[in-house]
């Protein structure tokens, strides 16, 4: 972000893709130009809960538990598999150097192929994680985010 010194704070544009001024309740003004405490056209709600109560309620909800469960079902096995593969590579390099020095093609040996396999596995795992998040968790997590923001709008934090 460039130096914003001397500029009107409301004229500064945030280039953060996760920043959504209206979704966060910022930047909304009533008819007088003053910042609105409720969304424009919204029906006033009773503020019976604090923000902490709302977040605890969301955390206990079945939707949140499902999102966490989907994350864990992917992340834990993937992490364990990758660590086992990495550990096998390190152990093989130290325990059986003759096998690792075995030529595969010209000057390329088993150790080089396995080392490049580590990089390939990292990129493959990153792609698989992003795909899993996009297909299995992002929509549900976004719905939870919207629900949470609606419940905490106007609540003292």
Provide the gyration radius in Å: 25 Å
Helical region count?
5
Query: How much beta, percentage-wise?
Result: under 5%
Query: Could you estimate the helical fraction of the residues in percent?
Result: 55-70%
Mean pLDDT: 77
Which ranges are low-confidence, i.e. pLDDT below 50, for 5 or more consecutive residues?
38-48
State the order of secondary-structure elements, H for helix, E for strand: HHHHEEH
Q: Between the first and last Cα atoms, what is the distance in angstroms?
A: 27 Å
Strand order of the largest sheet: 1-2
Inertia-based shape:
elongated
Helix/strand/pairing category: mainly alpha
Taking the sheet with the most strands, its summary is: 2 strands, antiparallel
Q: Could you tell me the number of beta strands?
A: 2
Give short descriptive properties of this protein.
157 residues, mainly alpha, 5 helices
Describe the structure.
The chain is mainly α and 157 residues long. It has helices at residues 21-24, 51-60, 62-95, 97-100, 110-152, and strands at residues 103-105, 108-109. It is built from five helices and two strands, in the order ααααββα. A two-stranded antiparallel sheet has the order 1-2. Helix 2 packs across helix 5 (110-152). The longest helix has 43 residues, at 110-152. The chain is elongated. The model is unreliable at 38-48 (pLDDT under 50).
Q: How would you summarize this macromolecular structure in one to three sentences?
A:
The chain has 157 residues and is mainly α.
Question: What are the SSEs and their pairings?
Answer:
Blueprint: H1 21-24, H2 51-60, H3 62-95, H4 97-100, E1 103-105, E2 108-109, H5 110-152
Antiparallel strand pairs: 1-2
